[in-house]
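Hi F.,

I've been meaning to write this up properly since the lab meeting, where we talked about keeping a consistent format for the predictions we share between groups. The idea is simple: the sequence comes first, exactly as it goes in, then the structure tokens exactly as they come out, then a line or two of notes. No screenshots and no reformatting. I'm using this chain as the first example so we have something concrete to point to.
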Amino acid sequence: MSMKELLESKHPTAWSEFEMGLIDENELAKKFFNDGRSFDLEGLKACMVRAYEYIDGVEDILYSLKQNNYEVHAFTNYPVWYQLVEEKLKLSKYLSWTFCSCTVGKRKPSPDFYLHAVDHLNVDPASCIFIDDRMTNIEAALSVGMVGLQFKNAEVLKKDLCSLGVEFAPVHEGEIQVQ
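Output, unedited:
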């Protein structure tokens, strides 16, 4: 099935409902396709897990931020399957899975999701640096007063963060143990 065919045949809201925790994976499996056909849910999960990997240079950035005691939170449109990401990459070594759409019930780019984060952390939005690869999500962060950076690659991100005054601890060879 081509991507075009998939997009034309999938249920219009099933995935976003799953991301927000409104339906569980069994319900997702039932309504994923408009015509009700079944599909290999476990195969989809396995395919997604195989695709998870650190983008070159990102783990070094996360490690350095952790070493310098910066508070880092996941802010993601992801279903309960974020736990599969955690299981494979062990991201919680570097960040807290605080703002997952499946637990908060909101999705990017809804301003309510960003405001929820600010309220939960009890911080001024201007003290938050929001990083995302999608400009629409960055625009939403900017609209509530956060600083927004578009992720292009690790090198650009590090330069962008440095320009905001973020300090990086040196990463010494052998310190990071990717599992």
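Notes:
The two ends are 33 Å apart (CA to CA).
The chain has two domains: 3-51, 58-163.

If this format works for you, I'll send the rest the same way.

G.
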